[in-house]
Write a structure and sequence with these properties.
Beta-lactamase; globular; alpha+beta; three-stranded antiparallel beta sheet
Length: 378
């Protein structure tokens, strides 16, 4: 554990506010400055969280998946402005031939939906899902509407990576070999091996779900909605769900975001160029238009990350800098990289809560402020 009295006090405050189990890791440059945890793995258990506890990170998985695709672009195997069908010919069906890789990364493909008959068991059938996505008719023409791909993003990105991988690996194996191994981040699991289940924290929820809109139901069918009783199932945790099903530690996620905050390198390992990283802070087209799926305006960039800023305000946990790239997960877990300061951080937890856009009211508020205070001194 690498901590500070301010971090300890902030973790205690989060537990007092109702959090159950928390894990935090942060870097300044390539130096680990925070590696801390608190609480229990489940509300009804007294097994403490530690640095090796695995958390379901929901949509933080999208950030890891996006980095995998950017690695292929860095190698010249993918061009953002080329049609997806160039790499995945079947995807051209039903008028999707003009959808580009960039449209998918920026959540403007017009294909946010998933198969209506999707079930928890089918979440683990990669071939069935990508076949269904390839055969779908878009809800909107490409690059005309902001449509957050809550689940489809992962398979759209993952299949491009799989199709362009000269070694023909599965997407989880690609992430393990090309991100996890070089970055010394062993816990970037997209599909958890049953031998690791003993390390899991259990997701709980205090959310009050809102009635779904038709497009929200199409995007995340109710049978696989982000409810603990579905996503705590071993069949779901073991499935390769590259848009929302990552099971990870804060330490491993933090090394990915530290690489981003450091312009594409960490230690002696370089995965991406500084120029490519800079592009991630560029806004998608029509970025101030409300997102049809999210129902609000969220700043999203061209590289698959959400963006910091004040107009509209970003999630306050990450700070207000305009060159902050981040991703939140369903229920509040979050990871960010500040491209200007080189500070990166990850906060994972077990209790899904409603998004709180007030730093003083958010259980993570004191934690994020403590991380920034520690970073200034180290």
């Amino acid at each position: 554990m690498l901590t500070d009295s301010r971090i300890d006090e902030a973790l205690d405050a989060a537990l007092a506010a109702g959090e159950v189990g928390i894990q935090v890791a942060a870097y300044s440059g390539d130096r680990l400055i925070v590696d801390a945890w608190a609480g229990s793995r489940a509300p009804d258990q007294h097994v403490p969280v530690d640095g090796e506890t695995l958390f379901l990170v929901f949509s933080i998985t999208k950030a890891v998946s996006a980095v995998a695709l950017h690695i292929q672009a860095e190698r010249g195997l993918v061009d953002y402005d080329h049609p997806v069908a160039e790499y995945w010919p079947e995807f051209a069906a039903e008028g999707k031939e003009a959808i580009t890789v960039r449209h998918i990364l920026s959540h403007r493909s017009g294909v946010p939906q998933m198969p209506a008959d999707l079930t928890p068991s089918l979440l683990g059938d990669w071939d069935w899902i990508v076949k269904q996505l390839a055969a779908m008719q878009p809800l909107f023409p490409p690059d005309t509407h902001n449509t957050y791909q809550a689940l489809s993003f992962g398979w759209l990105v993952g299949e491009i990576v799989r199709r362009t991988d000269p070694k023909g690996r599965s997407f989880p194996d690609f992430v393990r070999d090309e991100l996890g191994s070089p970055l010394d981040a062993p816990d970037l699991h997209i599909g958890l091996d049953q031998r690791q289940f003993h390390r899991l924290a259990t997701v709980s929820s205090v959310e009050n779900p809102q009635p779904p809109t038709p497009i929200r139901e199409a995007t995340v069918p109710s049978a696989v909605d982000f409810r603990p009783e579905i996503w705590n199932r071993y069949e779901v945790l073991s499935a390769a769900i590259p848009g929302a099903g990552g099971v990870m530690t804060a330490r491993s996620v933090a090394r990915v975001f530290a690489m981003l905050a450091n312009g594409g390198s960490l230690g002696d390992v370089r995965l991406l160029s500084p120029e490519r990283i800079d592009q991630f802070a560029l806004r998608r087209r029509d970025s101030l238009e409300p997102d049809e799926v999210l129902g609000s305006t969220i700043l999203i960039g061209q590289g698959g990350f959400w963006l910091g800023g004040t107009e509209p305000p970003a999630n306050p946990i990450v700070g207000s800098g305009s060159r902050i790239i981040y991703h939140a997960g369903s229920g509040g877990c979050i990871a960010w990289a500040d491209l200007d300061t080189g500070v990166s951080a990850v906060i994972l937890h077990t209790r899904k809560t409603d998004q709180v856009w007030d730093l003083k009211a958010h259980p993570f508020g004191p934690i994020s402020e403590a991380i920034r205070a520690v970073a200034k001194e180290r």
